[in-house]
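JOB MANIFEST
job_type = single_chain_structure
chain_count = 1
residues = 240
[input]
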Amino acid sequence: MHEGIFIAASAGIKQGRKLDVIAQNIANVNNTGYKRDRLVFKEFMPPFAPDEQLNAGRNVLLPAQISNSNVSYVGVSDQYTDFTPGGLNQTGATLDLALAGPGFFSISTEEGVRYTRNGNFRLNTKNQLVNQKGDLVLNPQDNPIVIDAPGADISIDADGNISAGTGLINLAIGKIKLVNFENPKTLEKVGDGLFLQNDPEAEAKIPTETTISQGFLESSNVSVVEEMTDMLATLRLFET
């Protein structure tokens, strides 16, 4: 039979999926704090484990009359987000914050608490610290942060402590909450640079070695050169 052709076709389908991931990465190269996605491929060979057997029919383009129980196929063994830090770009804006080290800002949205590396913050009409969508930035008590200090200079130190002052007098206002997770793979991208924690048993910990840089934003960790090189290599596989 032509099983070899169908096996190659299953690999081609997965390479098409890889191109989708590459395109998504490139499209977000200029988004603050964006983390690129990666795919890991594996050839699954019979005899299949139960979960692999269930996927065999979706990964091998064999006609219905031909059993796929003894035909190997190429599948995605893992898709993950690469949390390697991006570079820091100086903006000079008072409420632009970048994280140096692992961890996330904690954000309150209409759907619940989410996490982000995007520290492009501002004040809303209630003088609450929010992201660009208007979602609230949280303090260690999971409450909104209010900065009601018109005319004062706002300072945010490396530990996230916020103070306002004029001249030699500074008033402590609050603190920004930072969290980290032992296994960031349990975080799911939900758009707008936000992540959802899917594991109910995952414990949010304080990242003791992470610092905040005021007046900076973290760039994405996408390398256009690397992504384009990967894209060309993937396209060549279609030609062979």
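[summary]
Residues 88-218 form one domain.
Residues 3-27 form the longest helix (25 residues).
exit_status = 0
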